[in-house]
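U., I forgot to send this yesterday:
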Amino acid sequence: MDIQQLVRELKTENRSKIVMLVADGLGGLPVEAGGPTELEAAKTPNLDTLARRGVQGMMNPIAPGITPGSGPGHLGLFGYDPVKHLIGRGALEATGVGFKLGPKDVAVRCNFCTLDAAGNISDRRAGRIPSEQSGPLAVKLRDIKIPGVEVFVEPVKEHRFVVVFRGEKLGGNVADTDPQRTGVPPLAPVAHDEPSRRTAEIAKEFVVQAQELLADQPKANGLTMRGFSAAPVIPSYEEVYGLKAAAIAVYPMYKGLAQLVGMEVIGQPTSLSEEIDVLEKAWNDYDFFFIHFKYTDSRGEDGSFPEKVKMIEQFDAIVPRVMALKPMVLIVTGDHSTPARLASHSWHPVPTLLVSETCRPDGLTAFSEKTALHGGLGHFQAVYLMPLALAHAERLAKFGA
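Result:
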């Protein structure tokens, strides 16, 4: 019996509230030996105050040594085994912008990029082109026509957009075309199984036509494709945990993932402060709230240690507003680590803080990687975070006689 099946059998109902505050890419590394991580360098008086009341630990999003993408990282937070429940980024992006995937669809998350005269990538994110400029370019790509398949293109945010191919016998097992570095051309889409060969050929033709349409653009004159995927089948939060769950996020991908696990996406916030506005207004309507903050991850991927520190401090500043609502359980964590030193996701465990009147405080007085290493939660896998939340919310019955 896996942990979700056990939780299904033990779940109980009460009026307790659970809040999961996720600072995307929270975990970090020192820039130089003996120095602080971004979280350790940040001034976080509110999180440090909570640390005195709570219990900490180090969480592995998937397994030791495995670097997670954002989708698997969040699935683990939500208690779903990311290895068992594979959800491609394309499906997340499509669902996040409100596209209803059908059984004949393969979705692809795409990035506008900048290509130099030789066709090599000089900027993987087209200078993080603003949404008001990238949106019309995505719409322009709707002019692409490929025989035997319907093509849908939807703007997402900044340099991101989503493409959906609809047709017969399309597989989603196609390799990403982003080489994850500059100075080289985008990769060709390569199928990993026979059903995906047609999808790969369609993707190649899409790229050819797209680059013709984008040829006159100063920044977004190329694209890369990631996360080819069909719609997944996954049990809902209410089915597994007995929770009426709400998701509050700015970026579409995280809204999409929340919807795929049965959360209701509420509000249309454009900032962290507005996310808390939505939380306050909806407080009486839900049992569980997932609140997502993106920019700790973005600044880490940019390789900017000082800017990631600033984002952590912004995150800390909203904590009193959340605590004023008196949730029975508050969890503060990230979906993975994104050290500015590496400018990418990493395999390092994520510091995690759980605060509840029913927890056993571990005596720590600050929240950081160093303190979490010595916390009462120890080292644990992310799939156990939701059972811990339910237990501290007194929503799990005893196992056995």
